[in-house]
Design goal:
The chain is α/β, with parallel strands linked by helices. Helices cover about 30% and strands about 20% of the residues. The protein folds into 2 domains: about 5-205 and about 425-485, 3-Layer(bba) Sandwich (FAD/NAD(P)-binding domain), CATH 3.50.50; about 255-420, Alpha-Beta Complex (Flavocytochrome C3, Chain A, domain 1). It has 14 helices and 23 strands. The protein has a 6-stranded mixed beta sheet, covered by helices on one side. Helix 1 runs parallel beside helix 14 and helix 12 crosses helix 13. The protein is globular, with a radius of gyration of 23 Å.
């Protein structure tokens, strides 16, 4: 029987393995990490998945566990294809490959249905993507669905499904070279041993865990950024593919990077998961070491700004900032602000808060907050579930929404730095998940999915798109690899 080899162990790789196995071929999945550290970046996510849906009836098909009481008290809204296309185009400055965008959008819901059919459970993303307004829970920002158990739950579920279907998973197996015969990929080399294959799927991530490559491609200073997720995404798949003539594509000087706890470790901690992130900044302000604001915290919903604001933090003196909130909004902060590992300062006055914030100019900070408070117009009702237009007036850097004065103690400050999630540059991959060579032709027998794919994200990223992209293109890659191997 023919064999498909999958390189990688996260969401994209596992979806590829399941879809290939559905076609009746033998599948071997090679995971570089140990069993304890398996799952790539997928294991470190909250499990949010952006998908098209037309209302509650569509959501019930992927979340049959929804209760009537949940339905009665929740405004789920809808997320049309046109909205998904517009969000992808808008945040990437319309640089996204249109064929990849079409595959992603058009198959997002179908792919979640396919996953649910296999046994993956989904639920509403209540904790991080909704607010209760006047007794009703309202979702915002086009993001409604998460995998049960977050990223770890998703990896566990997909792994169990794959194993039950007969996929062979080999841990601590680092692929280092692609084997090819007259231009046709025919296997991989692992620890000096050749594994024959009729087709190979590369789903082993980008290069964010390689500080040399980060500095080379993203620029100076990026070697200083801690990595949000796995330590094993060092560009192996990209290197192997380009060595046999694969073309690269995408935003090689760009990446997904977020506000991350200032004292987080160098790489992701599975015990903490993604809770070092700090994404409630639209409810307050961010200041740098000079005590100055440097971004419009309310430019858009956080899931359309968070993936690029990490870079803005990295550009600040000392590569850090503080997020500032007062009592009026602290009850709305996401759960990640309540973990025991958080870098948090609390005080009854702004002067005392400033004195306790390490490395921040106290006088300039107090002046900054005073200027900001005076600029808040207060003419509009505060509503965190919509872009409420509650803005500042006359500031060099405005706050366009959710601009409440910071005037009610106790005050809180959270120290953040930049945490890199994944890199945007990768391999040239078409909508069939085929890897393309430098002459513009598919490399026979070679497919790719997940964060290794270039051409999807430029400059920014709509929250929840990464896992959906990995699932969609993982499924496509596995299916086409199996069909190629059987032909």
């Amino acid at each position: 029987m023919t064999r498909v080899v999958i390189v990688g162990g996260g969401n994209a790789a596992l979806c590829a393995a399941i879809s290939a196995r559905e076609r009746g071929v033998n599948v071997v999945l090679l995971e570089r990490a140990s069993y304890e550290l398996r799952g790539g970046n997928s294991r470190f996510t909250a499990g949010a998945m952006r998908t098209v849906y037309q209302g509650t009836d569509d959501l019930l098909k992927i979340m049959p566990d929804l209760t009537q009481s949940e339905i009665d008290r929740t405004e789920f809204g809808s997320y049309a294809r046109e909205d998904f296309y517009e969000d992808l185009g808008r945040v990437t400055n319309y640089r996204i490959d249109p064929d990849l965008a079409e595959r992603l959008v058009e198959e997002s819901y179908e792919t979640l249905r396919w996953m649910q059919h296999h046994g993956v459970r989904f639920l509403p993303l209540y904790g991080r993507q909704s607010f209760e307004i006047e007794g009703m829970v309202r979702f915002w920002g086009g993001l409604t669905v998460e995998a049960w158990g977050g990223g770890p739950g998703l990896v566990d579920s997909l792994t169990a499904i794959a194993e039950k279907m007969g996929v062979v998973i080999r841990y601590q197996s680092r692929a280092t070279r692609l084997l090819n015969n007259s231009g046709n990929v025919c296997g991989v080399e692992v620890d000096g041993t050749s594994i024959a294959a009729d087709a190979v799927v590369l789903a082993c991530g980008g290069f964010e865990s390689n500080p040399e490559w980060r500095t080379r491609y993203l620029g100076p200073g990026w070697d200083l950024a801690p990595v949000r997720g796995t330590r094993f995404n060092t560009g192996d798949g990209i290197k192997m593919a380009t060595e046999i003539g694969a073309a690269t594509r995408g935003h090689w000087s760009g990446c997904h990077a977020v506000s991350w706890d200032r004292n987080a470790p160098e790489f992701g901690d599975l015990e903490v998961g993604d809770n070092f992130q700090k994404h409630s900044y639209p409810l307050g302000i961010m200041v740098n070491a000079n005590g100055e604001r440097f971004v419009d915290e309310g430019a858009d919903f956080r899931n359309y700004t968070y993936a690029r604001y990490g870079h803005e933090v990295l550009k600040q003196p000392g590569q850090f900032a503080y997020q500032i909130f007062d009592k009026k909004v602290t009850h709305l902060l996401r759960d990640e602000y309540r973990i025991k590992q958080v870098t948090r300062i609390q005080a009854q006055t702004l002067n005392t808060l400033a004195e306790r914030m390490d490395d921040v100019d106290t006088e300039k900070f107090v002046a900054c907050v005073s200027e900001y408070n005076a600029a808040c117009n207060g003419d509009t009702r505060f509503d965190p579930s919509i872009k409420d237009g509650l803005c500042t007036e006359g500031l060099a850097i405005p706050k366009s929404n959710w601009a409440n004065p910071i005037d009610t103690p106790p005050f809180e400050a959270y120290g953040v730095t930049c945490g890199i999630t994944f890199t945007f540059g990768g391999l040239h991959v078409d909508a069939k998940a085929q890897v393309i060579d430098e002459a513009g032709s598919p490399i026979p027998g070679l497919y790719a999915a997940g964060e290794i794919v270039g051409g999807l994200f430029y400059f920014n990223y709509p929250g929840g798109t990464g896992l959906t992209s990995g699932s969609v293109f993982g499924r496509v890659a596995g299916t086409n690899a199996a069909d190629h191997s059987s032909s």
